[in-house]
Design a protein that fits this description.
Shape of chain A: globular
Structural class of chain B: alpha/beta
Largest sheet of chain A: 10 strands, mixed
Number of strands of chain A: 24
Order of helices and strands of chain B: HHHHEEEHHHEEEEEEEEEEEEEEEEHHH
Oligomer: heterodimer
Distance between the termini of chain A: 11 Å
Helix content of chain A: 10-25%
Largest sheet of chain B: 10 strands, mixed
Number of domains of chain B: 2
Number of helices of chain A: 12
Largest interface: A-B, 44 and 38 residues
Radius of gyration of chain A: 22 Å
Strand order of the largest sheet of chain A: 4-3-7-9-12-14-17-20-22-24
């Protein structure tokens, strides 16, 4: 097929790598010594002035981690990671607790400006100007730079509504009872290799608590940036929606372009109590490595939501375009009766990226429902795997799931894989799973080209149609960014 | 999940090692065959019995489920073989009988033209050229502990050669019979080579009551030549509770060949059927279908590895399960499309109906695709009987148990009707009807 041939040539001819956030901010940083041992764990804990229980909690996780082996079941391959060659704590020197934006290092502000992240409360998220009145309402942002949170906007306004939105290190100081009650209650420190590592050395991340009956007045958002060389980022996010509350949370991430790989091992825990709803959206755009597959972020993330209360709902939406390696399975434990879990995902891989991502829907309560829509697009030399588990337990009467995972292959050298696990232990359960893999239809392409679109525009149009189900789930602010990201990620891969 | 595990040998593993050590001298073949046996057993011993951490055995933890290893069945005595003669006389024409895993030529009928049959032990003993390569089936990449164990302990089987262009009017039957007094183990391996352009229907079945108690580890290797057409059916029925049956089926389909397979599983203590299918030449067509009807504490696992290594092949896989009482159904299907296997058209569908609160269904349809110009898809569903359909039948005057049976029968027979051979369709339909009747009887008993 001619178009595929052209594609291959183009991929060879031009630099596939269109990553535009690959710059490095030269800022003086305070680091912990290289390597990992109990002293480093104590150092991080001391830096954050943590209470004794948390230090003990970290140490217990560390001691367990030492006995664990890195999981190898995922369809990703990477050189062994030397965990003693990494820095586990790095913070911009001037970042300690600025009271106002004026106190924040201007270099940092410039960085976020370049990334299009408004730390000025009057500004709006880049890319949505002119998108209408609706979009220009504020978005509260927590900016995390390497191991610390540098600034959080709209805190005062949120506090008026009773919403707590702050870095988790601050929450440990100001709301220890909430942190202690919920931390590790969804992803226990013993959960898996990377989650255990994170429990030992987690640095910063966001903490959100929405009190009963409150609908969070604005979108909350955290922006993660890895800057320092050889530094791992281990953020920890904890979101609690109390009875009848609602919150929508967005997460974004970028990293500088480097030849070495960087490690990112995050843990996200969501807790929805009775009638609460959490909507968690991610646009993951870590540095994916260059055209030869050199460099890039290793993204090993454990994300899990617990629909603890009745009629609760958790919805994950993710657009994955970055990272050299993605290992991530945002899941829902549907514990409360009538609870609902959703997972919408677009995973795009190009160059030498490897994606192994999917979800778990664990049906425990009665009449629980879940929906999984996953769209994988593989181009270049990438490997794109959907791995998911749907299970119902003996008492999960009336559980229902619908799963649809479609893969699109662009080019000859990529691979798309589907590995679903469907486990049913209740006869009233109804599980449906369907998956398809195909290439962009030549008829569709021909039709678009006939109408005067270039091959690239036509492909972008068809791909956008392919992923529309998922894009519709994203909040407006992110949908615009995601749509742009998709076209950037596929640039150079279509003929 | 990631904690270090130090494997220790289970009683069954230790017993298997002893069985191999004492039996190997008496097993057919020398030189290269002996080497193959030693290597295969070593490969098995390295990992031991497969367990839930071995991905392809995740849902059938043989290490935990296989408590003991039975001794190999003694060679059937002349009297016992003679006792079978009467039963064998009732068998259809073209039947090849294996008694406790050993080919009994005298019980087998006259064969049609173009078919040559020998026993595996004879082929191994005379070191027939190419036999080892065919048996090793390296093309299948069947890197599996049970296949290794079978290679180490294979005692006999049939080697069937179908001449190129031969066309058989009636099906060829491989009949597994057992006469051992005590529960025993059987290891057989059979090889079917179908020449280019030949046309064959092969049916595997069991004979006689009590025939299937004990532990069975069978392997069947079918090599479908260019442009050949092979239809295959297998019935795994009324295996006794507590028995263990491991069936490996390896199929290689050459260019433009057509291969169609159907299996019916009813009953059986613990049953695992694994199918390795390779599309080796372009434009071939292959279908795998199966129906499993399970009750009691039966556990039936069907695991497929379908590999498309050539362009333009069409693969269809359809499996259905009916699960009652405390039974467990497992379906795993992995379809791999290799780089360059363009224009592959692959579809897979697994459906399960659960009739009881204690039943379990695990399915894992898997796709692994390395070529872009393909159409591949899979689907899996699992749930109870459709209430609307039941209600409709009840409004038409059918009592609930009959309405249920009618729906279940239709669900199973839909796949059976595609076998494409009237006698076999009738035989398999009858088995489904018998299973449903037995179920209805036990329901009535439990209600009373």
């Amino acid at each position: 097929m001619a178009a595929v041939q052209e594609t291959v040539e183009r991929v060879k001819a031009i630099d596939v790598d269109q990553y535009k956030y690959g710059f490095f901010t030269d800022i003086e940083a305070e680091k912990a010594p290289k390597g990992l041992n109990e002293d480093i764990v104590r150092f991080i804990s001391a830096k954050k002035n943590e209470p004794e229980w948390l230090t003990a909690w970290r140490l217990e996780a560390y001691r367990r981690w030492v006995t664990m082996r890195e999981p190898t079941w995922a369809r990703v391959s990477y050189p062994p990671i030397d965990y003693q060659e990494l820095y586990y704590y790095s913070a911009p020197k001037t970042a300690s607790g600025p009271k106002s934006l004026e106190e924040v290092d201007p270099e940092l502000l410039r960085t976020y400006e370049k990334l299009g992240i408004p730390l000025n409360e009057r500004a709006i998220l880049a890319g949505v100007e002119g998108a209408g009145q609706e979009a220009s309402r504020g978005v509260a942002v927590d900016a995390v730079f390497d191991s610390v949170s540098v600034f959080t906007t709209f805190k005062a306004e949120l506090a008026k509504a009773g919403v707590i939105f702050c870095p988790i290190s601050e929450a440990v100081q100001t709301h220890p009872e909430l942190v202690r009650k919920y931390l590790g209650s969804v992803v226990p420190p013993t959960d898996n290799f990377f989650a255990t590592l994170n429990s030992a050395v987690f640095s910063d991340g966001s903490f959100v608590y929405v009190p009963p009956g409150v609908r969070c007045p604005m979108e909350l958002s955290t922006y993660f940036r890895i800057n320092e060389r050889n530094t791992g980022q281990f953020e920890r996010t904890l979101i609690i929606a109390d009875k009848g509350a609602y919150v929508s949370y967005l997460e974004g991430c970028t990293a500088p372009r480097r030849d070495e790989n960087q490690l990112h091992a995050a843990v996200v825990e969501l807790i929805a109590l009775d009638d609460a709803e959490i909507k968690y959206s991610t646009v993951q755009n870590w540095y994916p490595g260059d055209a030869e597959g050199k460099g890039g972020v290793f993204n090993f993330v454990t994300k899990r939501g617990d629909c603890r209360g009745q009629n609760s709902k958790i919805s994950w939406t993710q657009v994955e375009t970055g990272s050299a390696i993605t290992w991530k399975y945002p899941s829902c434990i549907l514990r409360g009766d009538n609870s609902r879990g959703e997972f919408y995902s677009i995973a795009i891989s190009n160059g030498h990226q490897q994606v192994d991502s999917g979800t778990k829907m664990i049906h425990l309560g009665k009449n629980t429902t879940s929906r999984v829509i996953s769209k994988g697009i593989a181009a270049g030399h990438s490997q794109n795997t959907y791995r998911g588990q749907i299970s119902s337990h003996r008492k999960a009467t009336g559980a229902r799931n619908f799963t649809n995972c479609d893969s699109l292959l662009i080019g000859n050298d990529c691979g798309a894989h589907t590995v679903p696990y469907i486990e049913s232990r209740n006869p009233s359960t109804q599980f449906e799973h369907e998956a398809t893999t195909s290439k962009i239809s030549e008829d569709q392409l021909f039709y678009c080209r006939q109408r005067g679109l270039s091959a690239e525009e036509a492909t972008a149009l068809i791909v956008n149609g392919f992923v529309r189900d998922v894009l519709q789930q994203l909040p407006m602010e992110f949908a615009v960014e995601a749509q742009k990201l998709i076209s950037v990620s596929l640039e150079g891969s279509v003929g | 999940m990631t904690a270090q595990i130090i494997p220790s040998r289970t009683a069954a593993e230790a017993a298997l090692a002893e069985i191999f050590a004492s039996a190997k001298a008496g097993l057919p073949g020398s030189g290269a065959v002996e080497k193959l046996r030693e290597e295969s057993f070593a490969a098995f011993a390295r990992g031991g019995l497969p367990h839930r951490r071995i991905e392809s055995w995740h849902y059938t933890d043989l290490r935990a489920l296989m408590r003991e290893a039975l001794p190999i069945a003694p060679a059937p005595t002349r009297e016992r073989r003679a006792a079978l003669r009467k039963a064998a006389a009732a068998l259809p024409a073209n039947s090849l009988v294996l008694v406790d895993g050993v080919f009994a030529a005298e019980l087998s009928g006259k064969l049609p033209e173009g078919v040559k049959v020998t026993s595996l032990s004879a082929a191994l003993a005379e070191d027939r050229p190419g036999i080892l390569e065919s048996l090793a089936a390296a093309w299948a990449e069947a890197d599996d502990a049970i296949v290794s164990l079978n290679a180490a302990l294979m005692r006999d089987g049939v080697v069937i050669d179908v001449a190129p262009g031969a066309s058989l009017a009636a099906p060829l039957h491989i009949v597994y019979a057992s006469v051992a007094e005590k529960p025993a183990a059987r290891f057989s391996r059979s090889l079917v080579k179908v020449g280019a352009g030949a046309c064959l229907r092969l049916n595997e079945m069991s004979l006689g009551a009590g025939g299937r108690a004990g532990q069975t580890n069978n392997a069947l290797i079918v090599d479908v030549g260019e442009g050949a057409e092979v239809g295959h059916t297998l019935s795994l029925t009324d295996t006794r509770p507590g028995s263990l049956r491991l069936e490996t089926f390896l199929v290689r389909v050459a260019a433009r060949a057509k291969f169609d397979s159907f299996a019916l599983v009813t009953g059986g203590g613990l049953m695992r059927r694994q199918i390795f299918k390779l599309f080796a030449g372009p434009d071939a067509k292959g279908t795998l279908r199966g129906v499993s009807l399970l009750r009691g504490r039966e556990h039936a696992d069907t695991t497929l590895f379908v590999r498309h290594a050539a362009t333009g092949c069409e693969g269809r896989q359809a499996f259905r399960y009916i699960l009652d009482e405390e039974s467990t159904g497992v379906f795993q299907g992995k379809v791999v499309v290799e780089p360059g296997a363009q224009k592959t058209d692959g579809k897979m569908l697994a459906k399960a109906i659960m009739l009881s609160d204690a039943a379990t269904m695990n399915s894992r349809p898997e796709l692994e695709i390395f070529a872009d110009d393909v159409i591949c898809g899979h689907g899996a569903t699992c749930g109870g009987l459709n209430a609307d359909q039941l209600f409709y039948l009840e409004t038409r005057g059918l009592p609930p148990p009959e309405a249920e049976a009618l729906l279940l029968e239709a669900f199973a027979n839909e796949l059976i009707d595609d076998i494409g051979h009237a006698d076999l369709v009738a035989a398999y339909r009858a088995e489904v009807a018998a299973w449903l009747a037995a179920r209805a009887r036990s329901e009535t008993r439990s209600v009373a």
